[in-house]
From TrEMBL:
Organism classification: Bacteria, Bacillati, Bacillota, Bacilli, Bacillales
Record localization: Cytoplasm
EC number: 3.6.4.13
UniProt cross-references to InterPro entries, sorted A to Z: DEAD/DEAH_box_helicase_dom (IPR011545), DEAD/DEAH_RhlB (IPR044742), DEAD_box_RNA_helicases (IPR050547), DEAD_helicase_CshA (IPR030880), Helicase_ATP-bd (IPR014001), Helicase_C-like (IPR001650), P-loop_NTPase (IPR027417), RNA-helicase_DEAD-box_CS (IPR000629)
Membrane-spanning segments: none
Designated name of the protein: DEAD-box ATP-dependent RNA helicase CshA
Domain of life: Bacteria
A Pfam family of this chain: DEAD
Start and end residues of each Helicase ATP-binding domain: 33-203
Assembly behavior: Oligomerizes, may be a member of the RNA degradosome.
Native source species: Niallia taxi
């Protein structure tokens, strides 16, 4: 166990970390902070939810000269919501030193950002398009930047962003420190990244699997037309605290959230076609628990750290394994457990095998619950809740009404009525979901060929299509798992977001 004070951090930054409740450094923090403090270039790879933000944030803040009024560090992130989140974490880390951190991203009033830039921030966190916009308007100068960080580096260096990143880097002095972080780093992206870096060290936290062991991973094989009913049955039985459901396209996300609302769930969608105000309000409501299901495209797949997310459902299997790793990584963070369920149609089986091969982790097969099992599962969940309430032993004010009821009806009838009241009966309200075509069947084709969507990698990789037969891995993972838990930047993004 490594303590932060053993990593050579200043006392002002230590004060912030104490305030944040950080005691021990996570492995990626312990390995990269000392190197980063020595101004080494590095590529840091560690599983989702293991503290990569502080791994780059702590040394950056520590090196900032707050007596100087120039921008000294810049962090580039692929989505607006992530830029905001990272800037908030950096603000907390920099609190002890009074470091000024500013986020700049598309969809927000540019004049407001220009005024904020005039207040001389030390650290900028932004999305590529808006950063470039400010550079071109000469409202942001990067000539004194000594550290540049690409969060979600492999995403930042893929086809959708690479040109913007190259333009931004060309405005930063050569003698800078360059840091790249992500949970995934396909080899061809890493090779490309090394062109921007000086003798980079690759720090990869040793792990057998690319995904974190905190997440139970299941898949459900189903037909396209039964997916939605199975999804709602799973939601009823598993009763997530907060759930994220990923859909493949923006239309899919709109239709799914509408359908969920029709069936009585409080769900809202987030994707790149919504106004920034709407995106932020949806996310805020989800964090507060005003809505408990967030339906999202891959715009929410990377980096977002929302406590209370116990379940991730891939309503549509993602098109590449990296996306899978990041999507399911929205649960099982900072030591908490989570569950991920991926729906596949029969024709998409080969994608499952590719994901398993890249993550080095087999998903277990989940047999979809029947309607009867769903009702039974819910009753069990309700029973558990009732037992918990009994354990809390706080029922005195209800006792006399209870006695009165029991005078009129026998105990078993009264309890049955209460159960009925608390159980959500199967809802068959008709919903309209446009059928999504299954992903093209893979034979020896290249998996990452997402050219049509503009989101693929420049370098392509091919995976072999052979894999073990997964039919033997069956289990019914229906347990109620609450216990473990406590557009400018979009101009380049694909129509899938
Ligand atoms: N040393 C620490 N002690 C306790 N909590 C920590 C520590 N470091 C980070 N955390 C918390 O862990 C959570 C996950 O951290 P973070 O978002 O940086 O993960 P990440 O590795 O960047 O994940 P992703 O790959 O999904 O972006 C955050 O809530 C963060 O505040
Ligand atoms: Mg992160």
């Amino acid at each position: 166990m490594v303590k932060f004070q053993d990593l050579g951090i200043s006392s002002a930054t230590m004060k912030s970390l104490n305030r944040m409740g950080f005691e021990e450094a996570t492995p990626i923090q312990a390995e990269t902070i000392p190197l980063s403090l020595q101004n080494k270039d590095l590529i840091g790879q560690a599983q989702t939810g293991t503290g990569k933000t502080a791994a780059f944030g702590v040394p950056l803040v520590d090196k900032v000269d707050i007596s100087s009024d120039v921008v000294q560090g810049i962090i580039i992130a692929p989505t607006r919501e992530l830029a905001i989140q990272v800037s908030e974490e950096l603000y907390k880390i920099g609190y002890g030193k009074r470091t000024r951190v500013l986020s700049i991203f598309g969809g927000q009033d540019i004049n407001r950002q220009i005024r904020a830039l005039k207040k001389n921030p030390h650290i900028i966190v932004g999305t590529p398009g808006r950063i470039l916009d400010h550079i071109n308007r000469k409202t942001l100068r990067l000539d004194n930047v000594s550290t540049v960080i690409l969060d979600e580096a492999d995403e930042m260096l893929n086809m959708g962003f690479i040109d913007d990143i190259e333009s931004i880097l060309s405005k930063i002095p050569e003698e800078r420190q360059t840091l790249l972080f992500s949970a995934t780093m396909p080899p061809q992206i890493r090779r490309m990244a090394e062109r921007f870096m000086k003798e980079p060290q690759v720090v990869k936290v040793k792990a057998k699997e690319m995904t974190t062991p905190l997440i139970e991973q299941y898949y459900v094989e189903t037909q396209e037309k039964t997916k939605f009913d199975i999804l709602t049955r799973l939601l009823d039985i598993q009763s997530p605290e907060l759930a994220i459901i990923f859909g493949r396209t923006k239309r899919r996300v709109d239709e799914l959230s509408e359908a969920l609302n029709l069936r009585g769930y409080t769900a809202e969608g987030i994707h790149g076609d919504l106004s920034q105000a709407k995106r932020m309000s949806v996310l805020r409501k989800f964090k507060e628990g005003t809505i408990d299901v967030l339906v999202a495209t891959d715009v929410a797949a990377r980096g977002l750290d929302i406590s209370g997310v116990t379940h991730v459902y891939n309503f549509d299997i993602p098109q590449d394994p990296e996306s899978y790793v990041h999507r399911i990584g929205r649960t099982g963070r900072a030591g908490k457990e989570g569950m991920a369920i991926t729906f596949i149609t029969y024709r998409e089986r080969s994608y499952l095998q590719v994901v398993e091969k890249v993550t080095n982790k087999k998903m277990e097969k989940l047999i979809p619950p029947t309607v009867d099992q769903a009702i039974e599962g819910q009753q069990k969940a309700v029973m558990e809740k009732i037992m918990n309430i009994i354990d809390e032993n706080n029922l005195d004010s209800y006792k006399s009404t209870a006695d009165e009821l029991l005078k009129q009806k026998d105990a078993s009838t009264v309890v049955a009525a209460v159960l009925k009241m608390l159980t959500k009966e199967p809802d068959t309200t008709p919903v309209r979901l446009t059928e999504e075509k299954p992903l093209p069947q893979r034979r020896d084709r290249k998996f990452n060929d997402r050219n049509s969507s503009g989101g693929g990698y420049k370098g392509k990789k091919s995976y072999s299509n052979s894999g073990s037969n997964s039919n033997s891995r069956q289990r019914q993972g229906y347990s109620n798992k609450r216990s473990g838990q406590s557009s400018s930047s979009y101009s380049k993004s694909n129509s899938y977001r």
